[in-house]
Design brief:
The protein is of the alpha/beta class. The protein has helices at 61-64, 68-71, 82-85, 95-106, 138-155, 176-193, 209-224, 247-260, 290-305, 353-364; strands at 2-4, 29-34, 47-50, 75-79, 110-115, 161-164, 198-204, 233-236, 265-271, 311-313, 319-324, 327-335, 340-342, 348-351, 369-371, 377-379, 385-392, 398-404, 416-422, 430-434, 439-442, 448-451, 454-462, 467-471, 477-478. Helix 7 runs parallel beside helix 8. The chain starts with a strand and ends in a 6-residue tail after the last strand.
Length: 484
């Protein structure tokens, strides 16, 4: 259980530390940087990356395909795009999707395919954009069934995960009973062809009361129809400026889902953060920069991992919107949530700071580490803090991740010195890691003490981005002759 010691007159700021500091305000000897791992070098981890909107040509595969493998994500979320696959009735062109599916698999990343959106070549076929309604006419639904069936047969053996529609509770608000029936018909087609397929439901936009009611109605209908077995996982969205604010709603969603189907897992299916101040799109009108974006990304990744929630970042590269739903825009607009910056022609420009931060997280946190629930610790501060601990499955050495979590990520790297006591620690050679930069520092012997399993770490520099206190054996270093 977390233990906080509140000292009213004891609040140390890192700017007062006497030794010379580097530009990051860290007064330790730099011994190297985290060495990234490619997806091929990782068996399993918690991370997915979004590569959405290629179905509407808002993102180009050629602009990001050379970089997905090096990120270290083990899954990628893709939108299959009915309207892009079937431009003439009954004639399918899967060449664009084949290239992506085969390409990411070759890079060691597992694709999950979302069956979205509609197809306007059919009357009542629904639209192709985010707020589009579901197909409704007899002809369109029959065509939908045929497309889904054809696609599942084509990708069986290559695609094992399917997600049915994106944000059905969005602005056009497809009623939950309508979506539930649509989900059942789609999931039954998938399972009839591939009985071992994993199917994600809802992909829900709102995680507040509206979304909770929508979710409960969906599960109530599936229960009445005896179809709960068609759901393996529920994917939730829900954008928040401070990543920590989302978890109360996620917990409530988990309670609702568990009432109906305890086998169904909760998954974070789509969330991202801009790297610039934007007047439109989610998390708009805030002074985001590449620095604050990178902090947001890591706080979301570490917050999800610490709660055993599989997590997907939206997205690998900036989206360039050319249409406002069905209407052509006068000037294209970038949604800057990508880990990679694109230009208005959707071409690669550069990797952002968050790209490297994401790599640092995937290089360390895979399933060779297991979370240590209720890790006992004390800290000399009353600041709101997130802290999670992990240990190696076979060697028991530990890594602790911590950050200040009360505010929206800032554009300052100012740090606060805190003293931690870990009551059940296990560190042979402890090091300090700034997960955002990947810099790894020696923690000098005079800065910590050990008494059995009790470790006291003095004046650890903490800020609003995750830092690690880790056994050196857990961290693969580049520019270092150390070995695991």
């Amino acid at each position: 259980m977390k233990i906080y010691i509140n000292l009213l007159l004891f609040f140390l700021t890192f700017t007062s530390i006497s030794k010379a500091q580097n530009k990051e305000g860290i007064d330790y000897l730099l011994i190297g940087k985290v060495k990234p791992k490619s997806a091929h070098a990782i068996d399993v981890n918690n991370w997915s990356i979004g590569a959405e909107t290629m179905d509407r040509d808002l993102v180009k595969y050629d602009s990001w395909k050379d970089y997905i493998g090096e990120l270290g994500a083990k899954k990628v979320r893709l939108q299959a795009g009915w309207a892009k696959c079937e431009k003439e009735k009954g004639a399918y062109d899967f060449a664009w999707l084949d290239e992506v599916v085969d390409g990411v698999i070759a890079d060691g990343v597992e694709p999950w395919l979302q069956t979205s959106y509609g197809n306007p070549i059919y009357e009542g076929g629904g639209g192709i954009h985010l707020t589009a309604g579901l197909p409704t006419s007899v002809e369109a639904l029959a065509a939908w069934d045929n497309w889904v069936s054809t696609m599942v047969k084509r990708y069986q053996g290559r695609v094992k995960i399917w997600e049915v529609w994106n944000e059905p509770d969005g602005k056009n608000n497809n009623p939950p009973d309508m979506y539930a029936n649509f989900y059942i018909r789609t999931a039954e087609i998938i399972r009839a062809i591939d009985p071992n397929a994993t199917i994600y439901a809802l992909s829900i936009a709102s995680i507040g009361k509206k979304g909770q009611n929508y979710t409960e109605t969906f599960f109530e209908i599936l229960k009445e129809k005896g179809k709960l077995h068609l759901v393996d996982e529920v994917t939730l969205h829900g954008y928040t400026y401070n990543p920590s604010e989302i978890y109360g709603s996620y917990q409530q969603m988990h309670k609702i889902i568990s009432k109906y189907a305890k086998h169904v897992k909760l998954r974070q299916g789509e969330l991202g953060c801009p790297s610039e101040n934007q007047s439109v799109y989610a998390l708009r009108n805030y002074e985001w920069t590449e620095l604050s974006q990178s902090k947001w990304v890591l706080r979301k990744m570490m917050g999800d991992l610490g709660r055993d929630i599989p997590s997907s970042y939206f997205l690998i590269i900036d989206i360039v919107y050319t249409h406002n739903h069905s209407e052509l825009m006068e000037t294209p607009k970038r949604n800057t949530k990508g880990l990679i910056k694109s230009d208005l022609e959707r071409n690669f420009v550069a990797k952002k700071q968050a790209f490297y931060s994401y790599q640092n997280a995937t290089a360390i946190f895979d399933y060779t580490l297991e979370r240590m629930p209720n890790y006992p610790y004390e800290v000399n501060s009353d600041s709101s803090l997130s802290l999670f601990a992990y240990q190696e499955k076979h060697f028991d050495k530990q890594v602790v991740v911590a950050w200040l979590d009360s505010q929206i990520p800032t554009n300052s790297n100012s740090k606060t010195a805190m003293t931690f006591e870990f009551l059940q620690g296990n560190f042979e050679v402890p090091v300090f890691v700034d997960l955002r930069t990947g810099d790894v520092y020696e923690i000098p012997e005079e800065s910590f003490t050990k008494r059995g399993t009790k470790y006291i770490f003095n004046d650890i520099p903490i800020y609003d981005s995750p830092i690690l206190i880790a056994d050196k054996s857990i961290i693969n270093l580049k520019n270092s002759d150390s070995s695991k």
